[in-house]
Amino acid sequence: MDNRVTIDFETRSAYDIKFGAYRYAQDPSTEIMCLAILFPGETEAVLWHPAYPSLGREAQGWEHMERLFDLIKDGATIEAHNVGFERAVWQFVGVARLGWPAVHPDQWRCSSALAATFSLPRSLDGASQALGLVQEKDKLGHKTMMKLCKPRAALKADLEIVAENVLGDKRRWKEIVKPKNVFVLKELYDHVPAVRELNPWKETDEDLDILFDYCKQDTVVEHGISKRLGHELPETELAVWKLDQKMNATGIQIDMDMVAAALKIADECKELADARIEELTDGAVTSVGQRAAFMDYVNGEPGDGFLPNTQKATIEEALKHPKMWSSNALEALQLRRSQAKTSIKKYVSMYNVVGPDGRARGLLAYHGADTGRWAGRLLQPQNFPRGSVKEDIDVLCDAVLTGDREYLDLMYGDPMEVLSSALRGAMVSKPGHDLICADYSSIEARGIFWLVGDENALETFRQGRDIYKATAASIYGCTYEEVTGDQRQMGKQAVLGLGYQMGYAKFAETCQGYGMDVSEEVAKQVVETYRSTYGKIKSFWREIEDAAKEAVSRNSDAPVLLGKLKLYTKDEFLHIELPSGRCLRYYQPRVSQVPSRFNDWSELFPRKQGESVEDHQGRIGAVITQASSLTLRDFCGRFNISPSLLKVDSKLTFMGLNSMTRKYTRQNTYGGKLTENVVQALSRDVMAEAMLKVDAGGTYIPLLTVHDEIVAEVPEGQGSVKEFEDLISILPEWADGFPLAAEGWRGKRYRK
């Protein structure tokens, strides 16, 4: 019999859960409100909860805890949804404060991670509703949970107690500054016995009963999701998930002295910027962050420029045309750009996320993308800015550590830009260790050629030649040696952008995003050259789409074979089995009719009376976006148009998360997108197996993966960059012939 136990905590804390489960669980204010348990073979969850003295309510369910402890000691599997939260609470509250037995890392499982591998929503409500296990969310239970999980607000009666004890007259309660909540009030007036006795939490018997039932029901639903999906990850993937959990639990060291210095400098810069904008505008704008007032001022200044919003891209574009603005407006725009650095928010996040030991934990989301690639959480190093200050990272961070804004301004210019450029360096190795990192070189470009079997392109990699230059030579009709730097850049954009069926208009737009002015004529020529040069990729788009449609039409687990892939349907999922044996899954696949991308959208949706050209183009853009993600029936229903007016294609559709609406709805896909899914997935599998090798070796301690980079920690004097590069370049058995290459570095601070 399966010895799987499903658990679910409800907790409360003065600390915000948005700063991560580990930091939340480590906070002294965090308490367990209840624990629901579904034991093996049972259908109803049971509950333990501590005593609630304010209600005269005694602890209940200890017999269930003793039974659970016995199962844990016997090695039972302990499962939860988003188990990182349960692990952290169990470790830092249950074990550390309540004396519970520790759960071995190998015993934990996560139904949310399992759902993610099936391309289902990660949330409990989303996954359960997608699978038809629960029709509607328990709104009352969720509302009650949200009410009870935070300290209550300070009331007049609470302030009267403070006034009476501190000021000698409770009628002077209005003189007491009202704090954020009662928890803060107790901290401020801890020397007052009557305040120390205040209960900072919202508690009623009725609310607790609702919460307890909600917790038990969630536990049953969690088990139902796990059961519906077969409970367990495949062996290799389970090992990858365990490593993910290990990395999240290990975390990475943060230089908190540098964080403090950076925040001090940022505060000084903001004060100066606000003072300057107030002076510049004669008091019309008193803070750079005042959006409406800022726009009114800039647009009211002499000049030909117009600022429609204060988005980063808009400000950057405005600053590219300095002659369109008055000198005052230009300076205001520069101040706004400087103060809008997202990197400063990252320093604030570091301050809030880091635990007592100086490490930030829970920074990765296993299977964050449907392809299996990791996503960032909390600090999200995947989104760290590159920065524009070209300086050695150690030197730059030392400059920040001075806390001297004027010094940064003198040495490098805008101090805010210095903070942005130094951000990565705030992540450091722990004492006695180094960071050692290696990044795979063009792994997706290599992966697509390996997938389709383009030996000519693969040979380019094996000979150590530059695939971007080789592609540029084909585009410009010159020799490899004659390719210029600008031509190589075009070759790079082609290799990175055109492998997934991108059209010429999108390619031209993408190039513009990288500062390359490419006409439609040139874009067409580049696309045509790419597709003729790499004909096997072009053919593969049609082949994989046809194979997927055939597998769906068969509705059988007898696979359709396509080169290194196997495609079949099983249990309402289209499976694309990768060379590694792992599967990409598409839920409830169908071959459906969809609007063709070759419709004349401007004719079908003509300009309305009084509608500007720009507004009409914007409306057409929204129509095209919807047409690319809706079935014919849904599209016609949404836009009230007859199907007979539309050109129609046959498309593969499935249930998935709409990237525009963030709703779980029917999506359509095509050969280029399926190719992209497969290439990203097999590239991820190469990296994941390399990470397992790194972990198994013992010398290097994996901490993070950022895009195609593996970040590890190594004791000083041990290992080497060459050894690390060679280790992660060992091919899995299934990847024979994959031209893998990695380049690494070693140091005390993280860098690009």
Descriptive report:
The protein contains 31 helices and 20 strands. With about 750 residues, the protein is of the alpha+beta class. The strands form five sheets. It has a six-stranded antiparallel sheet. Strands 3-2-1-4-5 form a five-stranded mixed sheet, with helices on both faces. Strands 18-19-11-20 form a four-stranded antiparallel sheet. Helix 20 crosses helix 30 and helix 26 crosses helix 30.
Can you tag this structure with a few keywords?
single chain, alpha+beta, six-stranded antiparallel β-sheet, 14% strand, 20 strands, globular, 752 residues, Nucleotidyltransferase, domain 5
Mean pLDDT: 94
Q: How many distinct beta strands? A: 20
CATH architecture of the domain at 4-148 and 203-232: 2-Layer Sandwich
The end-to-end span amounts to 50 Å
Strand order of the largest sheet: 12-13-14-15-16-17
The CATH homology group name of the domain at 4-148 and 203-232: Ribonuclease H-like superfamily/Ribonuclease H
**What is Rg?**
29 Å
In the CATH scheme, what's the topology name of the domain at 4-148 and 203-232? Nucleotidyltransferase, domain 5
Shape: globular
Number of helices: 31
Uncertain runs with pLDDT below 50, 5 residues or more? none
Secondary-structure class: alpha+beta
Percent of residues in β-strands: 5-15%
Name the CATH class of the domain at 4-148 and 203-232.
Answer: Alpha Beta
Main β-sheet, in a few words?
Answer: 6 strands, antiparallel
How is the secondary structure organized here?
Blueprint: E1 4-12, H1 21-26, E2 31-38, E3 46-48, H2 62-73, E4 77-80, H3 83-95, E5 108-110, H4 111-117, H5 124-130, H6 139-148, H7 156-167, H8 182-188, H9 193-196, H10 205-228, H11 235-250, E6 252-254, H12 256-280, H13 291-300, H14 312-319, H15 327-339, H16 342-353, E7 359-360, E8 364-365, E9 375-376, H17 393-401, H18 405-412, H19 415-422, E10 427-428, E11 433-440, H20 443-452, H21 455-462, H22 467-476, H23 485-497, H24 504-513, H25 520-533, H26 535-554, E12 560-562, E13 565-570, E14 573-577, E15 583-595, H27 601-604, H28 613-627, H29 632-639, E16 648-657, E17 664-669, H30 671-697, E18 701-706, E19 709-715, H31 721-728, E20 742-747
Parallel strand pairs: 1-4, 4-5
Antiparallel strand pairs: 1-2, 2-3, 6-7, 6-10, 8-9, 11-19, 11-20, 12-13, 13-14, 14-15, 15-16, 16-17, 18-19
Helix pairs in contact: 4-10, 6-10, 11-30, 12-15, 12-16, 12-17, 13-15, 14-15, 17-19, 20-30, 22-23, 24-25, 25-26, 26-30
